[in-house]
Task: structure prediction
Amino acid sequence: MARPGTGNLLRVGTPTRGFFGRGRRPPGDRLPPGQYDTGADWPVLSAEVTPRLDTATWTFTVDGLVERPTTWTWDEIHALAPSSYSGDIHCVTTWSKLDVSFGGVSVDTLLDIAGPRPEAAFVLARSHTGYTTNLPLADVTGGKAWVVWDYGGAPLPAEHGGPARLLVPHLYFWKSAKWVSGLMLLAEDTPGFWERNGYHDRGDPWLEQRYQGD
Amino acid sequence: MTDTPPPRATGWQTATVVEVRQETERAKTFRLALERPSPFRAGQHYVVRLTAPDGYTASRSYSVASAPDDSGEIDLTVELLDDGEVSGYLHEVVQAGDHLEVRGPIGGWFVWDADAPALLVGGGSGLVPLMSMLRLARRLDRSHLVRLVVSVRSPADLYYDHEVPGPEVRIIYSREAPPGEARPPGRLTAEDLRPAPDPASTTYLCGSAGFAEAASRLLVDVGVPVERIRVERFGPSG
Result:
C-alpha cells in the first residue's frame, strides 16, 4: 500500500477536504474549544464497574496535610450548610452538558472544618472504587468545588457517581471523581488514575489541557 | 490500578487514508498510514480531528481495530451515528487518498499486551478495541490466553464477521440468530459468560453505557472480582 513520503509532510491544521462542520455556535459561546453540546444526553464514562454503595455505611474523609483529619457519615455531611452549582460541565471526550444543577456541600465547608496546613498545595481525590484524581488545592477552594448528591432535584444516579461525587465544573469532568470517598491534602502533585495514563494534571477545558504535555 | 508510565505526549499528525472498508451497514473501517508511526498497545485509541475552511474543528476518539505491528498503519472502525457530525463526514465523504488529522495513541488502562489471560466482552461497536486484542493474540499464537464473548443484534451487525469466529470466540445474538444457531436470540446472560475466568485474568468490557452496566453486573454474578474488570463505555458522541 502507498505510504506517505516523509519528504512532503502535510501542514497540521489544513482544512479537511469536504468538511464544513455543522456544530458551530454563535459568538458568546459557552462551549470550550473542541467541545460539542450533548443536549439532553449525559454520557456515562468511567473505567470501572458502577459500585452499589450503601449510604448507611458511606463516609467521606479529609486527611493528609490538615490540622484535623475528619470523617463524615452520610447524615453528618448532610447536616452541613448546603451549597449548589448551576451551570455547565465539560468532558474530555469532547461533550459538554449545559445548564445542569447539582446540590451538596461546598468543599470550602469541609476544608474549613479540617483546616488545611500552610504547606498543603494539592489534593488527591479518591473514590470508594479506588479511582483517584489529582488537583491543585486552589482548584477546589474559593467556591469552585463541591461534594454533590443531588442532581436536578433528585438523588444522583449511581452510574453518574451517586450516592455522592466530587464536582469541579471548571475542569474536565474526570476531575469530578465519581463515588468520591475523600480528599487527601498534599504538598506535591501526585498523579491520579487517568493522569498516570497520559491525561493532564490540571485539565482546564478552556486551555484544552486534555493530555500530558498540552 | 496500573503502573504503566504515562505515554509520551503526542501531537497532531496527518494520516493518509489508504483503504475504506464497509464492515456493516453502519460501520466502516478506515485504514490510515501514519506520517509519524509510533508503537501502540491493543485497546488504545486515536483522536480524529476535522478542520473546516474557517478553522472550526470537531474531534472524536476511535479505537484501533488492528493489532499492533510495524506497518505504520492503523485501522479505525467508525460507527455511523444519527446526526454524527464526525462519523457522518467520515462515512459520507472520506475515501482512499484523503488526509485526516489524528493524534495518538491514547490510553494506558484499557490495554492488553497478550501476556496474561483475558476475558473480552463486547457489545456491538464495543468489539473494536477487543478486535485489536484478539488479532494480537492470534498473531502471536497466544489464543489460549484469550476468550471473547461478543453480543450483536443480528448476524448483519457483526463487525469483521469473516474473521471473528474461532474456538476462543462466542457470538451472542440478541434479536436475530443465524440459521443453525442453537442458542435462541436474547440478551446476554450470565450463562453466556461462564465458565468464570481464571482469577488472575483481567476482563475487558466494552460497549454502550447500557450494555456495560448490564454486562458488568452479569460478570459480578458469575464471580469476576470487580477490581479485575476494566470498562470502556461508548457514549453517544457523534
About this structure: The longest strand of chain B covers residues 13-24. Chain B touches chain A through 61 residues (CB under 8 Å). Residues 39 and 84 of chain B are 29 Å apart (CA to CA). The first helix of chain B runs from residue 85 to 92.
